Amino acid sequence: MKYAIQPDVVSAHNDKLASDLNRDFEVLGEQLSRKGVDINALTEKAQAFDIAVPSWGTGTGGTRFARFPGVGEPRNIFEKVEDCAVIHQLSGCASAISPHFPWDVVDDFSELKAHSDSYGLSWSSVNSNTFQDQPDQAQSYKYGSLTHTSAAVREQAIAHNTQVIEWGKKLGSDTLTVWVGDGSNHPGQQHFQRAFERYLDSAKAIYAALPGDWEMHLEHKMFEPAFYSTVIQDWGSNILAAMETGERCKSLVDLGHHAPNVNIEMIVSRLIQFKKLGGFHFNDSKYGDDDLDSGSIHPYQQFLIFNELVDAEHRKQPGFSPAYMLDQSHNVTDPIESLINSAIEVQRSYIKALLVDRTTLEGYQQDNDALMASNTLKGAFNVDVSPILAMARFRKNAAINPLATYRASQYREQAAVARPDTGGSRSGIV
Amino acid sequence: MKYAIQPDVVSAHNDKLASDLNRDFEVLGEQLSRKGVDINALTEKAQAFDIAVPSWGTGTGGTRFARFPGVGEPRNIFEKVEDCAVIHQLSGCASAISPHFPWDVVDDFSELKAHSDSYGLSWSSVNSNTFQDQPDQAQSYKYGSLTHTSAAVREQAIAHNTQVIEWGKKLGSDTLTVWVGDGSNHPGQQHFQRAFERYLDSAKAIYAALPGDWEMHLEHKMFEPAFYSTVIQDWGSNILAAMETGERCKSLVDLGHHAPNVNIEMIVSRLIQFKKLGGFHFNDSKYGDDDLDSGSIHPYQQFLIFNELVDAEHRKQPGFSPAYMLDQSHNVTDPIESLINSAIEVQRSYIKALLVDRTTLEGYQQDNDALMASNTLKGAFNVDVSPILAMARFRKNAAINPLATYRASQYREQAAVARPDTGGSRSGIV
Amino acid sequence: MKYAIQPDVVSAHNDKLASDLNRDFEVLGEQLSRKGVDINALTEKAQAFDIAVPSWGTGTGGTRFARFPGVGEPRNIFEKVEDCAVIHQLSGCASAISPHFPWDVVDDFSELKAHSDSYGLSWSSVNSNTFQDQPDQAQSYKYGSLTHTSAAVREQAIAHNTQVIEWGKKLGSDTLTVWVGDGSNHPGQQHFQRAFERYLDSAKAIYAALPGDWEMHLEHKMFEPAFYSTVIQDWGSNILAAMETGERCKSLVDLGHHAPNVNIEMIVSRLIQFKKLGGFHFNDSKYGDDDLDSGSIHPYQQFLIFNELVDAEHRKQPGFSPAYMLDQSHNVTDPIESLINSAIEVQRSYIKALLVDRTTLEGYQQDNDALMASNTLKGAFNVDVSPILAMARFRKNAAINPLATYRASQYREQAAVARPDTGGSRSGIV
Amino acid sequence: MKYAIQPDVVSAHNDKLASDLNRDFEVLGEQLSRKGVDINALTEKAQAFDIAVPSWGTGTGGTRFARFPGVGEPRNIFEKVEDCAVIHQLSGCASAISPHFPWDVVDDFSELKAHSDSYGLSWSSVNSNTFQDQPDQAQSYKYGSLTHTSAAVREQAIAHNTQVIEWGKKLGSDTLTVWVGDGSNHPGQQHFQRAFERYLDSAKAIYAALPGDWEMHLEHKMFEPAFYSTVIQDWGSNILAAMETGERCKSLVDLGHHAPNVNIEMIVSRLIQFKKLGGFHFNDSKYGDDDLDSGSIHPYQQFLIFNELVDAEHRKQPGFSPAYMLDQSHNVTDPIESLINSAIEVQRSYIKALLVDRTTLEGYQQDNDALMASNTLKGAFNVDVSPILAMARFRKNAAINPLATYRASQYREQAAVARPDTGGSRSGIV
């Protein structure tokens, strides 16, 4: 087992903080026990929580206007794995990497897998890319991929997806996530129904190549890169496509891909009810697909989403096992810091949602006691569960204070020296 | 056959305008023939076009803050029928009335039917009301109707809907439109999944009472009266509910019931594709469910919706026969004027959409010639089809200039005398 | 001094909860002291916090579709004062009432003042109403009030506002809040510039009647009741109007009156900077002017607004003294419960904002350490300050658990008996 | 005088279309004369209309995800000028170019000016760029430019702007347009007031360098590239900044830079009223700053904006002379085609707005005849003014059918050969 950061850097930091943590944990435990909640059971839940990190998130992101790269950015998937190792080592809750192809293609996948194994990291869903043209590509995706009017383009896009599945198998993944930017910028440019029919045909062709124990996740998005219409524009088109495609085809929810004001937690509930919730791309946003750090703008909304998830778990909803992943663009922060922080913020929502007394809530719902139902959720949200999260990390030899530990480790400064050339990086997406 | 306005008032007006109309029609006909379009075929389409008027739309609408009634408002369904007769007589394209129960309940439906028959008017979809409490009601809808946690409330709401079907049969209707305000104002107030399950059970119970040649239309709405969650909040929940409920259960699209920026014409296409487009509530809006006059804010969007409808007609999409209705709140205009004007504005979109050369458009779509595809639609939209609409009215003995004719008829002034008491009107919804 | 609820009901409840509260307060104090924060200083701030209650908020609200009144609603301003007395007695932070005229007009204002004095309540800003027609009114506001094209209507609206000032003087108020629904539903209906010029003239005429120690607050709103344009549609028009009108004319921010996605805390900062922040109408919303309970949907946004307010206080920004008021529509809850709860939720945001270490934050801002700046705010927000809020109430003889105490008091049940007729209530606005 | 396209290609096309055009023009003239409108006066207005083209718009645009360049893209400002020459030659209404620095910096500006002069093109507002880092730059704009916490960065940004003015002088420009992406992605990252104070200081420093006959235009934008807050986020901050900076500092309106649902025509009216409307960046959008072709999504909104502009012209509003410019991202079309088409679509809105009978409209406004006021605008909008636009082009030796002429000219195919290397183009912004 390798470590991206020397374990003694972590333990030295933890040593200084352990006493206060123990005290805060004890006190919170006492308060929770008054409500009949066992803090250690909660802490075990926190220890078991895990969220995947996207390989591309380790690079600085940008906008169509500019990208301002930081120093020491990873130049290839091996270096991205190292950064992911830091994230997991310090957060204790991010042990899987989600790769993006062809960005992360390597000659020798067994070498890559050995590399990630050495850090105790695994591979979650694999992502295909048919929204960009690659240098050696026969057909262009300028006017679409899985929905293109040309059969040759669609076939190329389908073949790429089946290739991605093959690469994923080598890494031990079991999910293919399909996001396409297909759509139109002008009214009339695309025939809505024909485009969707082509999408369904393409999706079925990919699904046919899916191993029997894999899932295929479709991702919807309201707009961008297409600005008048997008083929899978919302959860309605998404779930219909998933239903048409096959049982193991499910819908993926990215928090930033919805129309303004939309009640996302309700969409989550609908997908759970119809057994089609595949997973999440967590991030936060104020305007569009801003890809901000999870929980940094609307933490209560994130909690309300987890309220649905924990409720489904609690009700033992059949077939419920969504995949969690971060999907953010880190334009002004150190990506490693943002990913550590965001993983924990998602974990925070999960633990808070576990605090909701579901029997009490159900009683208020049954009685239409709207204010007490609301306060039941707010009461759980208001509890500061930081000691639980910190204790979960401490017990897993992760960092009580991950950001301070990271900065003290000088990992970034060392990477800046070790990785001099980041100009050409394809990470961070811009 | 009775007339709400003396036919000689109409013909006197038309006589003055006929010469210019004939000239404009001739010239436009020449221009269209250059493009291979037969103006008389289009005019026949315009003559055949019809859109239903909601009975409640004949009264002045309002907001939660105030209602400013006009003079001579209809005080009962018989007077509303008279106003609808004016609308159809002058517009020539609004021969059906959509009643709302219990507002429009009468002791003797055959008397009401004879009344509407005498004006040549028929009855389109019947609307139930479980979003308000009626004076004599056993159970309150304060916390929901079809989704209420109490079985007694749900049963009352179901019974009301089946009663509405019975009333509708007496009037010759063949569609039940179900809109409920059910939802919540507080996170936690309602269990999303359980509420939706109750909705589905209730909808199926109503559907079981539906005559074999009727359709049932479900209407979704993002918000208002519920401000945190609404049970049928969007087309996604709507189509799933329609699919679960039965083959003749379809989705109804109200143009003002969507999230900001949503591409409504695409939703229309999806519903057509999945054979679930039941019909429309036409109106326009800038902010929320503003219920403004159709085409007064976003005329191009209304055209793009008709582009989908005409395309489906053109492709002979199986099972395609949506119902058209206006649903507006006339807060600052004479409702009769707004309804006449709006019926014609919807008709205008239909005729413009018929001008689209679909073979040409399909070619541009196939070639990804986005600009020419866009211009094909814009080119049709830019044509001023007013002479076609006016000629269609003229040929049906409706008014060439409906608003001027209406004002000249002094119908409103006479109604003000004949209908002195409008204070207690339930029309206009507020 | 009178009490709306028997003090021994309160103290009996408090007795049962005091021990746990003391324990939680002690523990939190210890945790805060580690960060250099004095919990008692914070608690004094909480004790000093006060937010006004709108008289109309004590009745059940509604929508244009329906209103579902509760039992025991106040039938006049005297009964509203009693309800406000309950709210303040239990919350300890809502000692002022904001009246609405002509709804709250009485024959004898000294009697009304004596009534409120007896409960230790005072009167904050007075509100005029030119968005509804009153039975005896000469001119109608159907097409506007302060901006109407008719001078007679404008003069009536101005005269009403100056009359409201006179009534306010009798109650000891020192602020006039002006909200008008003026605007248009159709493009072209109103000439934007001329309407705004008329607004400015009217505002200046009212301002001329303002006592020298009063402020006049203008309230903007994006839409509703006008659905195409509103004269004071946003903070831009608001601040320009305030600047044109006079030094003591300021802008009032209602949290639900903005376009989707707008950064409200930034608007607050701008108004502070230009010395034009008059005050707030607190509520929460998901879609439009939903008037939901404060902090029930976007608690972090409410915190971020208080972060601006506390920052201005901290910087001793000249002329900074905004007025706080709740403005909510309680459609599905007991209004007294919602107002108690909401007053405390606003207070909660204030106390959390006081926890922000402004020196540390400024350092991160100076260094562009975006993540640590964000975490500094989130860190303060994450602290559960409930013990501070409860202790502040306890020390003021208010209720440690206000909702439980209120329910135990059976105040509503007694009001239901004492106030049998609520059908005609003008409270709650619908 | 040079031509980008051989004049005989244009005239050959025109010859084929002239007969039908003359016929349509004659007929429309007759129809308009019935309404008292002189078609030749309108055509002269159309001939006099001119809108600037942004140099960067001649390249294919893109998104943060990808850019799909077309063939024959201009590789430098000289080639961009040639493309602009095509646009003007065929549209007859786009004689000015707006350059962007440092993208368009050349060693010898007199050579560039001679080049544009040779095509009869002039230079409109110059644009500075402090939202990207240039290779040789001392300070980074990652965390802001004019508002950066570091004085050195601000000074560099100010110096760049004053340099841009100097370059602009050499080209004969008289306006500096300032758009900055400054803002924040995290709550707390930036102190709103201090950032705005720094902005004002920087703006004043630039203004001090402005020649006495120049204007400085500030551009606001709700979001992107900053996703939590933007320093000049809306017209409120914009006009306040313009007022603080100086008399010749004005606000520029980009149609895609507003919050959802905002009434942009009303903002235009406010800026006109306060003598601060500097100009426009025309484009269209459905979701965010989509930068779609002008009038392609919301043509009626564009008309309503011109209704305000024509009204101000009609009222001889003092100091009213806004600058018009296109600002679009052409991701899926040939940029030359989109720019030709868009220039004409803006011109179309202008001519339609001239058709509004302002005396009649004012009468309806005075009488609160909302429907007839609305119909007065819609009536003008419904007229198909295409023959006027085509005749204006024909009379200026531009193309009756610009797109067909352009395609027939094979300009793009020739450029593809003449400009083999477009990979490194900085045009199109991505």
From TrEMBL, chains A, B, C, D:
SUPFAM superfamilies: Xylose isomerase-like. Keywords: Isomerase, Manganese, Metal-binding. Coiled coil: none annotated. This is L-rhamnose isomerase/sugar isomerase. The lineage of its organism: Bacteria, Pseudomonadati, Pseudomonadota, Gammaproteobacteria, Cellvibrionales. GO terms for molecular function: isomerase activity; metal ion binding.
